[in-house]
Specification:
Elements: H1 2-27, H2 32-43, H3 50-61, H4 65-75, H5 82-96, H6 104-120, H7 138-149
Helix pairs in contact: 3-4, 4-5, 5-6, 5-7, 6-7
């Protein structure tokens, strides 16, 4: 009887250790901090750094979009917070928007970020209640980014110079 118990404990220990190795291989943390972050995201105890988020929001409001994005990425290193990812996408939109033309690369990165934010909250539409923003949902932001990337005769509109300021 004792021999069987030792065998089952050995099998269980081997499966547990193999699972840990597979998890480490798939997440590929580069340092101990990343390992802790990814483990907390896996377990469900992950939270963003609120102080960094607030600092990034202040930079965003001062139109320092690249610095704000970098700060938000530090606040949400596992990229698991939908609201933070929405703001990152919005920063790409604001920086890439232009009266005559929009920066295609920034809009593509913004579109990727807003799609990622949408995937983080599949049950309900993502909505951010910030009075300083003119686009409050991820769907609105995604539509704006896709319109900015649109090619064709509509993109050659000379009246685009008269557009209202960016949203």
């Amino acid at each position: 009887m004792r021999h069987r118990l030792i065998q089952w404990l050995g099998i269980a220990w081997t499966i547990l250790f193999a699972s840990l190795i597979v998890w480490l291989y798939t997440t590929a943390p580069r340092n101990l901090q990343e390992l802790r972050t990814q483990a907390s995201a896996t377990v469900g105890t992950y939270q963003i750094d609120q102080a960094r988020f607030a600092a990034a929001l202040e930079l965003f409001r001062r139109e320092q979009y690249a610095a704000a994005r970098a700060e938000w990425q530090q606040a949400d290193p596992a990229a698991q917070d939908a609201r933070t990812q929405f703001y990152i996408a919005y920063a790409f939109y604001r920086e890439g928007w232009g009266r005559v033309y929009s920066d295609e690369e920034l809009f593509k990165r913004g579109l990727d970020a807003v799609k990622h934010a949408n995937n983080l909250v599949p049950a309900t539409p993502l909505k951010v209640d910030d009075p300083d923003l003119r686009l409050h949902t991820a769907a609105e932001l995604q539509a704006e980014l896709e319109a900015g990337l649109a090619q064709g005769w509509g993109a050659l509109n000379p009246l685009a110079v008269l557009r209202r300021e960016r949203k």
